[in-house]
Design brief:
The chain is mostly helical. A two-stranded antiparallel ribbon has the order 1-2. It has helices spanning about 20-40, 60-75, 90-95, 95-100, 105-125, 145-170, 175-180; strands spanning about 135, 140-145. It binds nickel (II) ion (NI).
Length: about 180
Amino acid sequence: MVGQGKGGVLYTMSRMEFSFLEETLVAWRHVRAGVVDELKNIPPDKLDFRPTPEVRSVRELVQHILEVAMFHTAELSRPDTNLKRYPMSEWGRRYAATAYDATKKQDLVKLLRSQIKDAESAFRRMGDLALWQLIEQFDGSLVTKFQRVHDGIGQEMYHRGQLTTYARLMGREPALTKLIRRGD
Ligand code: NI
């Protein structure tokens, strides 16, 4: 146990003992909460918005965030992780059918919230230690599962940034900017 005494900073992370897994889940929750806020900031009739024809629409961006999160959760939370189990073109069908079925804003928001909970349960069931296991990436290099979870958080933040740009292109102020401006 790392934390000392009740009310210590570390205990504010969760009711559970401090661990690198809990710290990682806190980081993921924060990024995910921001994705939800940015999606909520976009009007429901703008889900088909895309800045240029080549790029993902708002809906497709969110579905992609969910797809990668679902893929990582499913593969990294099992002992026989295999990132190449299915070709990437099949991920939607194999890992993220619910994400692609969710086309309405309210359903996407719900799924963003429930998916992170599913991920937290799956990784907690597995435990901190198991996430230090090495796995093979697409290029054959080895990384820990933890590193891969953090890469997933990074890619989610990247796409969250795109949502803020989309909002600006619609003439809207991004949710996080509003929050900072209000000084919350
Ligand atoms: Ni991506």
